[in-house]
Structures are given as structure tokens and as C-alpha cells.
Amino acid sequence: MYEQLRKYILPELIPSGTRVMVAVSGGPDSMALSHLLWRYTQEESSRGVSIVLTHVHHGVRRESDAEAVMVQDMAKKWNVPCLVHRFNAKRYAESMGQSFQEAAREWRYARWKEDMLKEGCSLLATAHHLGDQAETILYRLLRGSGTAGLAGMYPSKGSIIRPLLSFTKADILNYCAREAVPYALDDSNQEPVYVRNRIRLELLPELERSYNSRIQETLGRTGELLRWDEEYITRQVKAAWDQYHYQDSQGTICLKLDVFKEPAAILSRLLRKAAMQVTQEPRGLGFTYVAMIMAAQGKPGWSQDLPGMRVKLTDEGLQFCRSHIDAGQKALNYKIPLVIGQSVEIPGSGMVISLLKEWNLSSVNSHTKRENKIAVFSSDLLTQVSKQSLVCRTRQEGDKMWFKGVGHKSLKKVFQEAKIADDARNRIPLIADEAEVLWIPGVRQSGLYRADNEDEKIVCILTSRIGRSI
Amino acid sequence: MYEQLRKYILPELIPSGTRVMVAVSGGPDSMALSHLLWRYTQEESSRGVSIVLTHVHHGVRRESDAEAVMVQDMAKKWNVPCLVHRFNAKRYAESMGQSFQEAAREWRYARWKEDMLKEGCSLLATAHHLGDQAETILYRLLRGSGTAGLAGMYPSKGSIIRPLLSFTKADILNYCAREAVPYALDDSNQEPVYVRNRIRLELLPELERSYNSRIQETLGRTGELLRWDEEYITRQVKAAWDQYHYQDSQGTICLKLDVFKEPAAILSRLLRKAAMQVTQEPRGLGFTYVAMIMAAQGKPGWSQDLPGMRVKLTDEGLQFCRSHIDAGQKALNYKIPLVIGQSVEIPGSGMVISLLKEWNLSSVNSHTKRENKIAVFSSDLLTQVSKQSLVCRTRQEGDKMWFKGVGHKSLKKVFQEAKIADDARNRIPLIADEAEVLWIPGVRQSGLYRADNEDEKIVCILTSRIGRSI
User: Fold this and answer.
1) Of B141, B339, B342, B426, which has the most beta carbons under 10 Å away?
2) Backbone phi, then psi, for A468, in 5-degree steps?
3) Is B330 domain-assigned?
4) Cα of B114 vs its chain's centroid, Å
5) For residue A119, what are the CA distances in angstroms to A54, A125, B437?
6) Identity of the residue in A198, A203, A214 whose CB atom sits nearest the CB atom of B341
7) Domain housing B207
8) pLDDT of A55 strictly over 50
9) Is it the case that residue A370 has pLDDT exceeding 90?
10) Which residues of B touch A214 (CB under 8 A)?
């Protein structure tokens, strides 16, 4: 393992004379990584590479103290600097409304960035291995991803390097045993609660047993092939971006009309890039929205509100303008086709609307939040949906709903009866077919297409984005 | 479903005036497809689209007769031609040494090609649906694949169209029930014996239950994104191919030296394309070999035998020459690094060599053939392997092997004792480290690095290519 790193991997990842910050949790992966890198600094001293260790004491487990001491002792023995940060991530997570893991991760990276500046390190080494890579690729595949996501983690990207990315956990444990590297086991990684843990502890072993005994290597290789493709396309997109985009004084991003001549691989990425620059949403623009904008080609005047922005097609090109929904005043205007089995985010609401067949309902219920708002429709709606006329949209002039024994009511009347404030009425998403409104989520479902017991049912669900499961 | 096909999908897939051959097994998918296409020819008669049905009577199941009658009756009712082919694929498969499914599939496509010519059809419609697409993508992911494979099946490629690719099995069954379309159920698809059936019947439902209730749609979408990328890169590769390749009078394909300046996404595909043109092997060149040729950059004089061809780096460029091993005379010359957890095909032998850790052995045994040839090495070899010095190669001047209590013997002596014919000696693959030969598969293992009971073990296995599992 050391020989492979010394000969082939580390010279590629670490330029001579570099000072490298090593993130050490105290587990076998990061302890082995530290040991390997330290050997490299000693045995290849002519390269002038040096290391600094950094450790985060999470303060939630009893073993945390002992781990910090173990890391510090090792650093002292090797005579390398070791920074230790103490942090109660749990309290932090509660106060920020994030998950523990997310919060801890963000906080760690922020500290490491500071440490690197302070210690003059230009690279940060993390101990991700082939098992982590396989898990990441499967996780992204299950959640939905394109080439960029399925490419997995990069051995080197920006200032982060992952020297162990092509080695298995077994290689690492074997190295620790052979070189008598001490380590602590992190129990929280052994609980199949988080989706990623379940992938690691249940799905990957099952795939290994029943489908491909070398699944980790296979996925790692797929990641490498896709990385080649993504790197190539990214370079092409960069050139295309310079060619097509310009920005006006209000921060609106425009793409020239010619952009539609680009093949889908390039066009879709340019749209995502424009959206990300406007909304600052790192997750980017979902597939449904990308496809919607692509379909706007040749329809000048087309305009659509999407989460965090409004997209317009003018004679000059595609405009991406930031929406200022924080003010709560500006009327939204969107019309999003709904497809059975798919979910879309509703602009300006942080909510997601899903259209599902009844038989998928059990699995959804277990994942989504209790406060779901649900409407159940009959199979007659199926005909509507397959004509693609069912939409989630904002209020329109003349909107009405039909109720049994009553007939049609204006939407205004329905809102009045439900005591919905005037300024909220223009922002509530509506589910409608071509003719009229079928459901105001959280307010009222019309009498049209209501399911009776014998029908095959379709279910429309409103969830908060946070509660979205993979 | 019909409305979506009529409005958005079929006009894209079928040009006006086209005669379409529809492959009908008699199952729900192909019966629904026939019905949908027939409706389209009737309701959109101005487009001048017509259909012809073709059915293969496999003659292995009792229900086969009834299915053929059902398809013919439907065709008669609609007044469209219906071709029926009768074939005992099982006997065919036995005589050809292929699996039943492979043989049947090849035979079917050959018949359809003939039928299309005979009936003047320019398109063949198959009934693959979203479930098939998800299964295909997972199958390829588990077997190992890049962008091209993970892109899944195409809705339209060459003369094949797949109109139902974005619909689920449930959509299809629902359509059959609603329109009273008769169909037969194919029981052989319900047995989780074949890997693909296991993916459909076990893995996909498990992923749907535990990870993503919309996994089919998610995978279908991933396929679409990757298809965009693959189509784009394929176009770039086509241009690069014209720029770099030339062919000499002996059929050798050459790529100009500059080809190494291309990014990995393009270079790897050019290498695969050159190899495929020389060997006619539709599966293409494995990752290991692609990486090997890529690593030859800057080493003029480098040469390597690979399955079905020899690749040479000269001052002018990379040469891919077909090897004529059929003659059995020409000496081979290859040296392939072995990596733990990986398998490589041995040039000119139709055999595969795998290097595995002991704990993977159980899963391998169940998959591979009984006639495996196996050598077991001790953990000392691990050190050799991690130095990347273990290779599978052809015989070299001065080759020797070490035996306990005897010392070194020349390879010639070992061959003589084992009564290996002279002309075979240059073709038998050898497993060796940098200094000497460790194992002649099927002949003898040396005394070096032999495992004793306490060691962690590495296993080297020789299998035939046919017996290769996913």
C-alpha cells in the first residue's frame, strides 16, 4: 500500500515543497493516512513535503477525550504540529435546524480552512477510501444524479486530496495491523439509521454477496470513467459559458438565443450554471426545470417563476432574474406540469409537490413528515394526467372550483370562506387541470375527480423541502 | 398513455409514411404496444404510418401455441400482416454453446431484420418499458460500465424505436385492462435465476421499498442525462477519429501520436474504437487495457499483445494490428500487471485471470465453472502485489521457478517434466513477480509465497471467458 502511494499516487497529488493538513478523526482510515503521509515525508525527505494534523473533538461520545489524546500523542512522537478543536456539534445542530451530521461537517470544514491559512498548508488530505466512494456513488444513484454526481469523489479537487480513494477498508485495516497503527472505532458509523449508513452496512454487502463480489472496485472504476467525461464536458461548458452569457446591472444573467443550438449535454449545464449564479442554490436546478426551460425554445415571451428566480425568454435570449420573495409582495407566476411519480419544488415556497399512485403511498408515508397535506383523486384524473394537463400553478383571473350539490364557486369565494389573507392568496400553489382548480393544498379539495372506494387512486402530496427523503 | 404517445412521443420517433415492424411476444408489454401503434395508424391516418406484426413461436413452453394464435387473431381483426416464426431455440443454444436467452435473442433479431426487408419496414418497435430501463441500468452498473452503458437503452437508435421506454409496467397493465387488450404472462420471467431477473424481482423492489419509492423514474432520468452526455461525446469522438486515424494496407489501424494530447474522455474512446475495428469484439476493450495503453504515452517501442490484437507505440503513433493466433504459431508477447480484486482477459486464450483476497472466494466459487484452475499464495505476496510487480505474461529467456528442497529449476525443465508440447510452451500464460515465475496455471505452482495455514491468503484463478459472471 505504502509503495503504491509512494510511487504512483502521492507524487501526483502533492507537489514538492507542499505543507499538507491531515484531517484525523482517530478512526483507522485517518490514522492510517497520517501514518502513510508521515512515512512519505520521512522517506522521501528530498521532496520537502511536511504535514500538520488537525483533530475535532466532538464532545458527544465518552471516547472523544481518549481519541484526542491518541492523536496528540502520535503527533508528538512524530514531532509534527497537531491542532485540536473542541466543539459541541449537537447543540449547534439544534440551534441551526440542521442534522447533526450536516452541522458537524460544515463546522469541521470551516475550522480546517482557518487551520490551513494559519499553518501555511495549501492542501487538505482526507481519508476517504474505496468503500466511501462506492457508497457515495450508490447514494447519488439512488437519489438521482447525472454524470457529475455519479463520478463520485475526486482524488484531487481544489485544495482537497484523497490519497486512499482507490484502497479498500480491508487494505487500510491490514496496514494498521502490519504497522501497529493505533485507532479508535467510531460506533455511530455502525448504526444503519442514516441512509448512507444503510447503504454501507446493508446494500453494499448484499450487492457484494449476490451480484458482484468486486462491487467496490467496479463502482470505483465507473466513477473514474465518469470523472473523465465530466472533466471534459466541464471544460467545454466553460468555453461555451464565456461565449453565451452576459450580466446586466441588476445582476440578471442572460444567455444569448443561440444557446439553444448547443447539444443537450452543454445546454443543460449552461442552464444549471446560470440558475446557480442567480439563486446561489448549491444543489442546482432539478431535471424537471431544466427540461422545461429547454422546451421553451422558439416561444419568445415565455416566462416562468422557478425556485428563487424568474426565467424569461425574450428576443435577445434567456434571462435569469433573482426573485425577491423575501419581500412577500411580488406576485409569482408559474405553471408547472405534474407527472405521476415525480416531485417538483414549488417556486418561492420551500415546498415540494408530488403526484403518486396509491400503491406507492405506504413507502412515502414512512419517509415524509407528519404535517403532509394530501389530496386523493380518482382514476378519472389519470386520464387528465396522461394528457399532461395537470399543473401546479399560481392564481389566474376567473379561477373557480366545483363542489357537489353546490356547483362552481369562484376561487375568491373559497379563499374568503377559508379566511385566507389577501396577500397570501397570490402565493398559495394551486393544483388544476386545464379548466379549473382541483385542490388548494391545506385549504380545500374540489368535488371533481374525488376518489370513491372502487377507483384506482392518485395521491397528491405537499411536503416541505427539508422533509424530502431520498 | 395513448394521448402522451400521440402528442409527444410517436411523432418524434416515427416519420410520416413509415411502415413499422412491431415485435410481439404476446406478453402485456408488446400487446399494449401493438394496440397503441395500431390506434395511432387509425386515428392519425393522415400521417400514413402502417404496422406489421412479427411473432416468434419459441416452442419450449406449452402455452406457445395459444400465444401465436392470440397474436394472429389480433392481426386479422385489425387487418394488418402478421409473420410467425417457429423455432426450437433450446436445441439451437445447445449446439452453439450459448445460453438459451442469448441464442434466442440473436435468432430473433436476425429474423426481424429479414422481415423488415421483406415487408418494406424501416423501423422495428420493441416494447421495453421504464422497468426494463431501470433493470438495464442497474445490471450495467453492477457489471461495471461507463457513461455509454449507464445511459441505458435509447428511445430511438438506428432502426429500433422503444416508444414505451418512459412508461411503467403498471401504466401498461392499466392500459391493457382499460382497453381490454388480451395478453399472456411469460412465466420464465418470474424466476429469479438469471441475474437480470434477480435485479427485476429482488433488487429493484428492495430499492423501491427501502431507499427511493420512485427508483424507476430516478434511474430513467439518470439514463436520459447520461444519454445527452454520451451523444455529445460520441460526436466529438467522431470528429477526433477522422483527425487521428489512418489504416495501412494490412488492415492495421494507426492513431497519430498527437492523440495522447486529447483528454481522457476522448482518448479512451478512440482507443476502444481502434481496438473494436481490429478485433471486431463488440464488448470492446476493458478498462485495464485502456488504462495500460494510455500509460504507454512517451515510451516509444512499447508493445503489448492484447486479446485479439497487438498494440505498438512507434515514432509515428499507436498501431493496432490484428493477431493471427488461429494459426497457433506466432509467438505472443504480453505482460499484464495484476491488481487484487481485478480480472483481466489473457490475450489469445479466451481465458480470464483474477487475483482475489481469500474472503472473496466463496462468492466467486458459486459463480465460476468447476474446471477453475486455482493457486493460493500467502500474505507475503501481498507485499509484491502492492508494489505492482505481479504480472501475467508470456515466457521469457531464462525463466525459472523455485521448489522447496530442490531450489531453482529452469522453466524448460518444468515444462519437460509436465510433458507440455514445445509449441504450447510459448502460449501458456505465466504468473510471475519481477524475478521469477510463481505459477504455470494448470501445470505447477512454485514453492515461493505458498500459503501456510496462518497466513492471510491471496487466490489466483484462471477461468474461461464464457464462465465469467457479472
Assistant:
1) B141
2) -70, 125
3) no
4) 25
5) 11, 14, 50
6) A214
7) 2-226
8) yes
9) no
10) 341-343, 356, 360
